[in-house]
Amino acid sequence: MAEDMNQLLKVRREKLQNLLDAGKNPYEITKCDVTHHSVDIKENYDELEGKVVTVAGRMMFKRVMGKASFCNIKDLKGSIQAYVARDSIGEDSYKDFKKYDVGDLLTVTGEVFKTKTGEISIHASEVVLISKSLQILPEKFHGLTDTDMRYRQRYVDLIMNDDVKNAFIKRSKIISTIRKFLDNKGFMEVETPMLVSNAGGAAARPFETHFNALDEDLKLRISLELYLKRLIVGGMEKVYEIGRVFRNEGLDTRHNPEFTLMELYQAFTDYHGMMDLTEEMFRYIAQEVLGTTTITFQGTEMDLGKPFERITMVDAVKKYAGVDFNEIKTLEEAQAIAKEKGVEFDKTHKKGDILNLFFEEFVEEHLIQPTFVMDHPIEISPLTKKKPDNPEYVERFEMFMNGWEMCNAYSELNDPIDQRERFKAQEELLAQGNEEANRTDEDFMYALELGMPPTGGIGYGIDRLCMLMCDQPAIRDVLLFPTLKQLDK
Fold it and tell me: Do 407 and 278 meet the contact criterion of CB atoms below 8 Å apart?
């Protein structure tokens, strides 16, 4: 089998050499005057019948029948058949065409017509080889089915699997729709540093690197938060950023060490304002991208058209675990009920941490329809305003769909005295060995001391949103080039 493949590859290189010897180097072509995509021709046949068009794409099929042949040209939007006859393109060109291989890139110029079987096609008057394929595509009917190779060779995956290509086209539309929505709301898109001295704003382990020019250790950002808040301090009232963040953690169906995060911050509002904005935005994206507010993911329907449920974390745990943390007054009581319910905790966990463990254990899987879970314990929310009437909890929410956290939002903490105390508590956790704890960011503290207005802020996992809206079961299916373990060389 390997010998057969090597022989086929050798033949392709020999064909290329023959072209070069004949002065027909396909790689010298720099421009193609394409007039239409395949689908546009099919959708506008009545208007284009009998007119000359030029398409460009990859030849995915060829059938030679003496003096006339058929081939199929695949482009961005789809594919179209071409009828290639010796008498129409010339004897020399037809001889060349018969030697072209599946996978070669061509331009086809000719009149639009329908075959006897009713298939919209192009009657070629010119066929030009614009790039020679020296490799062999996967076998037509079995396609590229090895999942690992699909991710490693995404370019082949895109050639062979239209569903894959369409998912990434949809992803692009989702992101452009988000930008359109926020721009229309008066938000300004900004860019902040990826290389930072203090990777804060989230509980995660950063990647570390060294900057030779300054002889300084730096980290890749794990969040966008602290720099965007600096901009709010600077008087930019509505800002957002869509960008890569990096977390030195594991790989699974919902996690990749580099992923796309969007964070936005709005002055003079709170987490209720963020809930309203989020509900409106998710509904808008679905309608614009999918044409409906009902999402179907792996057979499960989620309705974005209805008002999203809003429930506190305490009430959610009470509803699904039967434990009321309003009745639990001490850490010892929380530890006791955790042991009773089989919830594992460690010595650094406080009462609020245990409440969150209960939520993760008993609640998340039930939150299929869009749900805002509000009012988190202060222990897990170091950058969030306390609830004035209940300082053990903060003005924070996470939105869930399909049992997944889709976004995380706060009424942002703008009290610099309180913020320093929160950082101090995080530093103590760091000293106890918690590598995900935040370090005190003195420059950010200085910004807060200048004064930050009341602000609502939120972070969205763009990849998970794309998974849901593109009906893709794993994050790797919405990342063009996901992180993979290197193959042994």
Answer: yes
